[in-house]
Amino acid sequence: xxxxxxxxxxxxxxxxxxxxxxxxxxxxxxxxxxxxxxxxxxxxxxxxxxxxxxxxxxxxxxxxxxxxxxxxxxxxxxxxxxxxxxxxxxxxxxxxxxxxxxxxxxxxxxxxxxxxxxxxxxxxxxxxxxxxxxxxxxxxxxxxxxxxxxxxxxxxxxxxxxxxxxxxxxxxxxxxxxxxxxxxxxxxxxxxxxxx
Length: 196
Prior knowledge:
13 helices
């Protein structure tokens, strides 16, 4: 999924087309081995129009958060308005829960700001929440990502909780290796937490 997002942004000069992204993913999905239960239904639909109806109601899985890295990388050059728009749009291809959609936006915007050298880690997360997260979710994400003294106890299979565990791993460890180890040692969907 990440490579397809990156290739699509490159090939189309960064112009996002949700239908085209779905078409690329649909051709890729049958050969994939680890497509999540929230991502699979829309990708297995016969047409793009049917994929919109096949999205899992309240689909809160973490796939949309995991796959935004290329959006954040491209966003370092294209800017945060583009990054927010594309991250939100790509999340909505397969996920409907606003917590997962906003977590994808926060991830991509923070990554773009860090890569561009405009903000450090903590400041990039705060900026993404304050300036690019939907207003009704800002307090939720501030409490989840900025304020906690310990990681959340819900399933890290959820997009927002996956992001929270990844942020907590970075904030509480001394280096990249320790953060990855912490993410993996946390259990459950550790490969996705470590990816994020």
